[in-house]
Amino acid sequence: MKAYYAVFRLRRRMETQYRAAAVGGIVCQIFFGLVLIALYRALYEGRPQSMPFSSISTYVWLQQAFFRMLLASDAELMDKVRTGGIAYDLCRPVSLYGFYYARILAQKLMGSLLRAAPMLLFSALLPAGWGIAPPSSPAALLCSAGAWLIGLCCVSALENITMACTMRTLDPRGMQAMMNLLMMILAGNVLPLTLFPDSWQPVITALPYAQLLDAPIRLYTGEYALSRAGWIVLRQAGWTAVLTALGYVLWKRHQKRLVLQGG
Amino acid sequence: MNTIRLYCKSMAMLIRSQLQYPASFLLQTLAQLIMEGGELLAVILLVRRFDHLNQWTPGNLYFFFGLMSVSFYLTECFGRGITGAFPSMVRTGQLDTLLVRPRGVLTQALCTAADPRRIACIAVGLVSLFRGSVLSGISWSVPLLLLLAESIFCSFWLILGLFLIEAILCIYSVKSVELANTLTYGGRSACQYPVDTYPRPLRVLFTVAAPFALVMHIPAAFILGKPVWNLPAWAAYVTPLAGIVLFAVMYLLFQAAMRHYRSTGS
C-alpha cells in the first residue's frame, strides 16, 4: 500500500508544476462557461423549464471546473507501451494495475482541484443567474463531495481499461478517441445531462459515465433528493467496483500477452 | 501561382501519406464523425427542449451550425500547419529549416500538415446546412449561393487568421498559448449559434475582435431572410470581407514577429 501511496504522492507533485499552463486553461474554461450560460439563458427566456435556471448554471460551472478530471490521460504510459519502456515497470514489485491506478488518480485529483478552486471562487462571485448557486443543503454538499470522490475512482478505473486495451492495439489513438467521445457526450460535457430529453433520463443516468460528475452535481443542486442519496452512491460504487474488476482482469490478461517493443 | 501549385502538390502528398494506413485512417475518421455528430446532437436536443432561440427556428439553428462546422473544419483540414503543427515546430526548432528555403515561412508551414480526417466533420456540417436550408424554406438563387460561398471562403481566412494569433504568441513565448484558444475553439463553440444570443460584451468580441458575426452571421441571416440589425442588402455581401482583412492584419503581424524569432536550437 505504501508503494502505491508513494506513486500517488510523486504524481501529485508533478501535476502542480505547470502553474502557468493551468492559468491559461482556467481562463479558457471560464470563457467557455460564460458562453454556455449565456446560450442557455437565451433559450430559457424563450421557454422556461420546470428546473430552475440556477441549477443549470451551477451544472455548467461544476462541469467546467472539474473538466480536467474527465479528459486527462497518462500519455507517458501510452508511450511506454509503444516504445517498450514498460519493461522497466514490469520489474517493479508492485501490481501494475495498482501502480497506474495510483498515478492516474493523483493526476486527476490534483489536476482538477488545482483548476476547480479558482474557477469555483470566480463563479461564486458572479451575479445570481450567472454564477454557481450554493448547495441545496450542507448535507447535500457533503454527499456530493463523497460522490465526487467515488466518481474520481470510477473515472480512473475507466482510464485504466483504455490503457489495458492499448497493450493489445499498441496505437492508443483510435481507442482513446472513442472513449473520449463517449465521455464528452455521456458525461454531460457537450450538453448537461439534465437537458437531455426526459424520456432518456432513466437510461442515461444509469450508464457509468453519469457516475463521474453528473451524479455528484445532481446531489449538489438537490435534483437528487437526499433521501435517494444512499441509492445514488451505491450505484456509483457498484459501477466503480465492476469497472475496477474488469480493468484488473484485462490488465492481468494483456500483461501476460504483452509483446515488448523496442530494440 | 507557383506558390499555389506548390501548396496543392504538398496537400496531395500529405493526404496520400495519411491514406497509407487505411484502417487507422478510417477509425479516426469515424471518431471525428461521431464527435461532430455529438455536437449536432446537442443542438438537436436543445431544439427539442426549447423549440426556438430568440427569433431563430430549429431550421435556422441547423443552418448556423452547419455553416460554422463546414468553415471551421475546412480550415482545420487544409490549414493544419498553422492550426495544429506550428507550436511544436517552434518548440523543437524545426521552424529553422523553413527559414533557409526560398519560400515564405507561412506558405511552408501550411504545406507541412493536412488533416483529411476532418472530412467527416465537414460532411456533418454539410448535412446540417442542407437540412437547415430545407427546414427554413430558403428559396435559393444564384446571388444567395454566391453569398454562402463567399461566407465560407472568408470564414476560412478568418479562422486561419485567428490561429495565426496563437502562432505569433508562440514565437515569443515558445510554449503553445492555451489562452488563444478562447478566440478559436471558443469562437467556434459560441458562434455556432447566432451572435444575438449573447450579452453585449460577447457580442462586441465576436463582431469586432473575432468578427464571426460579420463573416458568418450577417450573411447567413440575410440568406435566411431575417436580416439582423436592419442592415441593407448590400451589407451582407460586404461584411464577410472582414475575415480577409483580419487575416491580412495577422499576416503582417506574423511577418513582424518572425523578425523576433529566436531559434530554440538543438
What is this entry, summarized?
The complex is a heterodimer of chains A (263) and B (266). Chain A has 263 residues and is mainly α.
> How much of the residues of chain A is beta strand, in percent?
under 5%
Order of helices and strands of chain B: HHHHHHHHHHHHH
What sequence of helices (H) and strands (E) makes up the elements of chain A?
A: HHHHHHHHHHHH
Number of helices of chain A: 12
The multimeric state of the shown protein is heterodimer
Summarize model confidence as the mean pLDDT of chain A: 83
Textual characterization of the structure:
The complex is a heterodimer of chains A (263) and B (266). By secondary structure, chain A is mainly α. Chain A contains 12 helices and no strands. Chain A has helices at residues 2-15, 19-46, 53-65, 67-70, 75-83, 86-90, 96-125, 138-169, 172-186, 201-204, 214-221, 229-257. The longest helix of chain A has 32 residues, at 138-169. The relative contact order of chain B is 0.14. In chain B, 74% of the residues lie in helices and 0% in strands. Chain B has one domain (27-258). By secondary structure, chain B is mainly alpha-helical. In chain B, helix 3 (58-78) packs antiparallel against helix 7 (119-135), helix 3 crosses helix 11 (212-223) and helix 8 (142-173) runs antiparallel to helix 11 (212-223). The chains are: A mainly alpha (263), B mainly alpha (266). Chains A and B meet through helix 2 and helix 9 of A and helix 2 and helix 9 of B.
Keywords:
heterodimer; A: 263 residues; mainly alpha; 12 helices; globular; B: 266 residues; 13 helices; 0% strand
List the helices and strands and how they pair.
The complex is a heterodimer of chains A (263) and B (266).
Chain A: H1 2-15, H2 19-46, H3 53-65, H4 67-70, H5 75-83, H6 86-90, H7 96-125, H8 138-169, H9 172-186, H10 201-204, H11 214-221, H12 229-257
Helix pairs in contact in A: 1-7, 2-3, 2-7, 3-7, 3-11, 7-8, 8-9, 8-11, 8-12
Chain B: H1 2-18, H2 22-50, H3 58-78, H4 80-92, H5 95-99, H6 105-111, H7 119-135, H8 142-173, H9 181-191, H10 200-209, H11 212-223, H12 233-238, H13 242-258
Helix pairs in contact in B: 1-6, 2-3, 2-7, 3-4, 3-7, 3-8, 3-11, 4-6, 4-8, 8-11, 8-13
